[in-house]
Design a protein that fits this description.
This protein is of the alpha/beta class and about 210 residues long. About 35% of the residues lie in helices and about 15% in strands. It folds into two domains: about 5-160, NAD(P)-binding Rossmann-like Domain (Rossmann fold), CATH 3.40.50; about 165-209, no CATH class. The protein is globular.
Length: about 210
């Protein structure tokens, strides 16, 4: 629609139930709420999928909503042109056939993706917000680089888990002004994969957000 902000989705994989499905699909079909679907207020105009598989649903959803899938991050951000052509970026680096290290951390290419996104911003002379799904990186050096690079471009960088805004069953939200002396959260599976979600859930409950 004319006048609306346009965003690009840069993802590793896009299958049913994946992080890309949880986030990107809502920008195409709407956000479910107690009062029904809330339509997105921005237009998702391009996608890049790093590792499409036989389980991929991204191509079908993109075709259904007339969203082009580009062969590179560069072309997804420029829409095949010479300069940055979107107003924001969803960076979803979760899932896929990427190597692991000795700490049982999967080496997702979030920093590599952001480096390319920042390169397009820098050469275009225009900065736009980026939302990074989950934590920035599997190591401090890369995470700090990502923060510093975006700061240097004066580009807003947001990151986090989607769990704080998920359905709660049973519903629980502390009254404003409640005193909490201690809090604990129990998670499951790998620390790198689900520990971050556990921490975000604990933090959102304690901070009442």
């Amino acid at each position: 629609m004319p006048g609306r902000k346009r965003i690009a989705a840069i993802v590793t994989e896009y299958f049913a139930g994946s992080h890309a499905d949880v986030i990107v699909t809502k920008y195409l079909k709407g956000f479910p709420t107690d009062d029904g679907f809330q339509l997105p207020r921005v237009d998702l105009v391009s996608m890049y999928i790093d590792q499409p598989t036989e389980q991929d649903i991204g191509h079908a959803i993109a075709k259904e909503h007339d969203v082009p899938i580009f062969p590179s991050i560069l072309t997804a951000l420029t829409l095949g042109g010479e300069e940055l052509a979107v107003d924001g970026v969803l960076l979803i680096g979760e899932h896929g056939e990427y190597p692991w290290n000795e700490k049982e951390q999967q080496l997702f290419p979030r920093k590599y993706f952001l480096e390319q996104i920042c390169g397009v911003m820098a050469t275009s002379g225009r900065s736009v917000p980026v939302f990074n799904d989950k934590h920035l990186s599997y190591n401090w050096h890369d995470a700090k680089w990502m923060y510093d690079r975006m700061s240097g471009l004066e580009a807003p960088l947001m990151a986090g888990s989607s769990l704080p805004v998920c359905w709660r069953k049973p519903w629980l939200e502390h009254e404003v002004g409640s005193t909490i002396d201690e809090a604990v959260a129990i998670g499951f599976s790998g620390l790198e994969i689900y520990g971050f979600h556990t921490l975000e859930v604990l933090q959102c409950m304690v901070e009442r957000r």
